[in-house]
Design brief:
mainly alpha; Farnesyl Diphosphate Synthase; about 75% helix
Amino acid sequence: MPLEAIRALLKSDLDATNQLILEELTSDVPLINQLTHYITSYTGKRVRPLLVLLSAGACSYSGKDHIPLATAIELIHTATLLHDDVVDNAILRRGQETAHSIWGNEASVLVGDFLYSRAFQLITRLQNLPVLGIFSAATNLIAEGEVMQLVNCHQPDITESTYFDVILRKTAKLFEVATLIGATVATELLASREALRTYGLHLGMAYQLIDDALDYSAPAEQTGKNMCNDLSEGKPTLPLIYALSKTASSEKEILRQAIIQGKTTDLPAILKIIESTRALEYTANAAKQHAQQACEALTHLPDSPYRQALHTLADFVVERTN
């Protein structure tokens, strides 16, 4: 598996990051410890910390600041997941019952806030003003992206342009931050920083596009989330947006009403329309184009096992099934 080879390359750094994550999740407040222990018991792929470590390695970094930065990026990502699950009223996350389903919305939101603040404590300890500026600007854009997505829910006339703007902010931006901060602590070369920033941005776009395609093609056993979860929340993602643009009027109304009402009662008909318009293929191809742009950016970096691992990661992102 590609991720296993990447983790082997980064073993010592990754072990240090995972240890620091556990340390930073500790609190004097028992409820925080209970909830954070639960959410770390079903950790995901931790792609974002990998990106920080790989980007630093690709720039021949020999220091240790990339460890707390990789930790901070994971804490921020986890905080966004806690908040997202509350907003979306999600039941499953990575195949497990969501934290808010167990402890309630209030606890999940507040522990998410704890994770955000703990991440910024880590970042400020480094006393690296450029890195702090990158993080603070990005978290603001991520919040805007979440609000934009909320506003767009149950709106069937959302354009592809608006959709791409949302996923750039809510998903791709944190990928971009991960690669940019890894490069920023490692090198003064602006060309290398820009190459890795571009890589991260396009990789994040590809990642979200595949996520949105999998929502209509993979069962919960694969993704850890209920199938067609986006539709039940009224989210017009690219498969639906493209299918709407390619359907006859009668089929178009089925899709429009599904988005407006957030209903999956006509799911067989909806999946048939998505299949007939080849919307999933269109979405996957868009992801592949972004992955290709990500890899093209790496040509500005010297060859190394870390650069090769970044290529491998891009391939994994577009080929994954969960």
